[in-house]
Amino acid sequence: MPLVVFAGVEITTMNNVFNFSAGPAMLPAEVMSQAQAEFIDWQGSGCSVMEVSHRGKAFIEVAAAAEQDLRDLLAIPDNYKVLFSHGGGRGQFAAVPLNISKSSDTSLHIVSGSWSKGAVTEASKYNQAKVVAEVSQKDGLNYMAPPSLENIDASAAYLHFCPNETVDGIAYNWLPESGEVPLVSDMSSCILSAPLDVSKHGIIYAGAQKNIGPSGLSVVIVRDDLIGKARRETPSIFDYDLMAKNDSMYNTPPTFSWYLAGLVFKWLKAQGGLAAMESRNKEKAAILYAAIDSSDFYSNPVHPDNRSIMNVPFLLAEESLNAVFLEKAESAGLRALKGHRSVGGMRASIYNAMPKAGVLTLVEFMQHFEKQYG
Predict the structure, then answer these.
(1) If DSSP states are collapsed to H, E and C, what string results for the chain?
(2) Overall pTM > 0.90
(3) Which domains, from first to last, does the chain contain?
(4) What is the pLDDT of residues 310-347, one digit of tens each?
(5) What is the mean pLDDT of residues 105-130?
(6) Which of 81, 117, 210, 328 is catalytic?
(7) 125 catalytic, yes or no?
């Protein structure tokens, strides 16, 4: 197991590098090893999976297996379609209103951070987007309380929310009480991190590049009664009905991303499924938050009730040390810790593929850095 030296102290690393990128994020080592082994000779064909027809029997079997494994992991009911789409999460910001609302309809939005705010901006191009709850402050920290929605507009086309904000590190476990109004959830940075009840949602969508696979793909889980309502002007590749009727292959899909997603789904099953992943993710997050909370040198800007187990932002007591911290971290094999430009500081994204060893190494580095510069 390799070692690096920081401040005269040996710090253990695994394969020299731990990648804390928020996305595109690290993939499981086992998945990458299998993909590497199959890269130029997939299934003994003498070709890469990137070079075979998406309409051929071999790839159709890969696609079907990926969908079934995802259905198994999330216990997706039969009255939901699973789509593998282009466009990532931002593509779905537009696809959702185009598929399930008219220009005169109201869409309701809970704004808990940067991504849910972006969904409002995009939806407002296509319908009457209305913010019904926003992030606030509690004890001087960012806080998202369950909104009071007793007087919710029952005629609204949908209620959109994002239970885990990648940029802000704000998360919540409650579901909005929306009555008969369909819930639409952007789960790009938390899907597959823990079990969830799909049946309580109308639509769940997620960009792949965090817990599913490489960028360029999004997964959409949509209830049957919300399909077939797309506006005439909806681009064909974003029309849920058209995509469902063509098994997500109306046009050429991002085949390599789909293949890798399938490998990740099988890896998750082999790890014990989503309950096992939730336990691991909570343990990793608890280790990192404990290190932050026990220090006067580091701080987390999110109220404990809303702390994400996927994206952990933290600030140094002296902002002038940010560049030094990042330089030393890179040298220690701790990559992509710079916070988003809109919030600054640091951010450690610890998705499913991040091993506990990576978090322990980061904590060890943080403690040594504090001793030298605190």
Answers:
(1) CCEEEECCEEEECCCCCEECCCCCCCCCHHHHHHHHHHCCCHHHCCCCHHHCCCCCHHHHHHHHHHHHHHHHHHCCCCCEEEEEECCHHHHHHHHHHHHHCCCCCEEEEEECCHHHHHHHHHHCCCCEEEEEEECEEECCEEECCCCCCCCCCCCCCEEEECCEECCCCEECCCCCCCCCCCEEEECCCCCCCCCCCHHHCCEEEEECCCCCCCCCCEEEEEEHHHCCCCCCCCCHHHCHHHHHHCCCCCCCCCHHHHHHHHHHHHHHHHCCHHHHHHHHHHHHHHHHHHHHHCCCCEECCECHHHECCCEEEEEECCHHHHHHHHHHHHHCCEECCECCCCCCCEEEECCCCCCHHHHHHHHHHHHHHHHHHC
(2) yes
(3) 3-20+272-373 (3.90.1150.10), 34-270 (3.40.640.10)
(4) 999 999 999 999 999 999 999 999 999 999 988 889 99
(5) 97
(6) 210
(7) no
